[in-house]
Design brief:
elongated, 11 strands, alpha/beta
Length: 380
C-alpha cells in the first residue's frame, strides 16, 4: 500500500487520530506501518519528494498560518511543506481533487502490522509490545527497499573535496595569527618582569607619590597625547576612541568628567578576537616621566609643532620617530597646510570625518593595527 494513498484515505475518513507514531515509524491503525522518513509519491515543486513525516505533520497542522506552521516544523526538525505546494497538496489529501501532476508513483510493498496473539486486533499497539516474526520480516524488506532506492552522492572523504578552492591560505593565516599572539604574550611577560625587577631593585620606601607612579606604570607600555585642546585626541577622549571606536570632541568630554583631569588613562583593544590583550597607559605630561618611563613609551599623538618635543630625551624628531610610533589625527576635510610639518616626519596620518561617526571605528582599528605591528617589531 502506498503511504500517500493511505494517508489520503485516513484524511477523507476523518481518521487521522488513528495514525500513531511509535519511535521512528507511523502505524495506521493495526493494518499498516511505515518508517517516518520514508519518501512518498508526492514531489514538491523544488523536485524533492515529501516524506511521510512531513505530510502527516502538515495535514494535522494545516489550519495554522503558514509562518507559524513553518516555525513549528523547523523547531521540531521536520522538513516543512513549501507555500507553493500547500494548496494543491491540501486539496488532494482532503479529496477535493482526485490526482495531481506532483504525484509520481513509487513501488511500495504491503507492510501489514500484525498484533501479538494475546492482544485484541481492535486495540492500537503501544511502544512496549513485541512485533511478530512476520512483522520483523516485512520491516526488513521495507528497509531493504529504501536502501535499494538510495543514490549515494558523496562519501565522507568526497565531502571534504572542494573544486577550485584552496584552503592553504586559511591554514597559513591561522598559524601566523597564533605566532603573533605568542609574540604578544612573550612581550607582555617580558615587560612585567622588567618592571617588577626595577621596582624590587629600588625598594618600596621612596615616598607615596613615587610608589603610586610605579604601580600605575608597572610594565605597561605608554602612549603620549598632547595636553592642548587644539588637537583631536586628548587624555579626555582617547579611551572612547581607542576602546569603543567613537570620536567624542574634547570639549564635550570635559563637561562629562567628574573629579578633574586624570593623570593617566588605561586603554585596551576591546574589539579584538585575541585572547591576550595588552593594556596601554595614556599620559599627557611627558615632563614627569623618568628615564625608565621613557623606555616604555611606544607611541605619541603629535600636534604637528616642533615645540611639543621640547625637553624630550632625544636629539631631534628623526630619533624620536625611529624609537616611538607617531600618529597625527586630522579631519579629512582639513587643509593640507595643517599637516605641513607632519608630512616631513615618520608619522602615520589618521583621518576621520567631522560628522560620520560610524567611520571612527575604522580609524581606531588603523591605529591599533599600526601599534600592534610596532610592538611586534620591538619584541624581535
Amino acid at each position: 500500500m502506498d503511504p500517500l494513498t493511505l494517508l489520503r484515505e485516513y484524511t477523507i475518513r476523518n481518521a487521522l487520530d488513528k495514525i500513531v507514531r511509535v519511535n521512528d515509524e507511523y502505524r495506521f491503525g493495526t493494518d499498516y506501518s511505515f518508517p517516518a522518513a520514508i519518501e512518498t509519491a508526492y514531489r514538491s515543486k523544488h523536485g524533492s519528494r515529501y516524506t511521510l513525516e512531513t505530510l502527516i505533520y502538515f495535514i494535522t497542522n494545516y489550519h495554522l498560518k503558514h509562518v507559524d506552521y513553518m516555525q513549528n516544523a523547523r523547531a521540531l526538525r521536520i522538513p516543512p511543506v513549501t507555500l507553493p505546494d500547500r494548496k494543491a497538496l491540501l486539496d488532494y489529501l482532503t479529496g477535493k481533487i482526485k490526482s495531481s501532476d506532483s504525484i509520481l508513483p513509487l513501488d511500495f510493498p504491503n507492510i501489514p502490522h500484525v498484533a501479538p496473539a494475546n492482544v485484541d486486533r481492535n486495540l492500537e499497539l503501544d511502544g512496549n509490545e513485541f512485533p511478530t516474526l512476520d512483522g520483523l520480516v516485512n520491516e526488513k524488506k521495507s528497509i531493504e527497499l529504501i536502501m535499494a532506492r538510495e543514490k549515494p552522492i558523496k562519501d565522507r572523504q568526497g565531502m571534504l573535496v572542494s573544486k577550485g578552492r584552496d584552503f592553504y591560505s586559511v591554514l597559513t593565516s591561522a598559524m601566523k595569527r597564533d605566532e603573533e599572539r605568542q609574540r604578544m604574550e612573550a612581550l607582555q611577560r617580558k615587560d612585567n618582569i622588567v618592571a617588577k625587577n626595577r621596582i624590587e631593585s629600588r625598594g618600596m620606601g621612596l615616598g607615596e607619590e613615587t610608589t603610586k607612579m610605579r604601580k600605575i606604570g608597572e610594565g605597561v607600555p605608554i602612549i603620549l597625547v598632547p595636553s592642548a585642546f587644539s588637537t583631536l585626541i586628548t587624555i579626555y577622549n582617547v579611551k572612547e576612541f581607542l576602546e569603543d571606536g567613537v570620536f567624542i570632541p574634547t570639549d564635550v568630554k570635559v563637561k562629562q568628567v567628574k573629579g578633574g583631569k586624570p593623570d593617566c588613562v588605561t586603554v585596551q583593544k576591546k574589539f579584538s578576537r585575541d585572547r591576550v590583550v595588552t593594556a596601554y597607559e595614556v599620559r599627557d605630561k611627558p615632563s614627569v616621566l623618568k628615564s625608565e618611563d621613557w623606555d616604555r613609551v611606544v607611541a605619541v599623538f603629535v600636534l604637528g609643532k616642533e615645540w611639543q618635543f621640547k625637553d624630550w630625551p632625544f636629539k631631534d624628531h628623526v630619533e624620536i620617530f625611529n624609537k616611538i610610533l607617531g600618529f597625527y589625527m586630522r579631519f579629512e576635510d582639513d587643509s593640507v597646510e595643517s599637516a605641513k610639518n607632519v608630512k616631513q616626519w615618520n608619522v602615520k596620518i589618521i583621518s576621520i570625518s567631522k560628522n560620520k561617526r560610524h567611520q571612527d571605528r575604522a580609524a581606531a582599528l588603523e591605529v591599533w593595527d599600526k601599534l600592534e605591528e610596532f610592538m611586534r617589531s620591538r619584541s624581535r
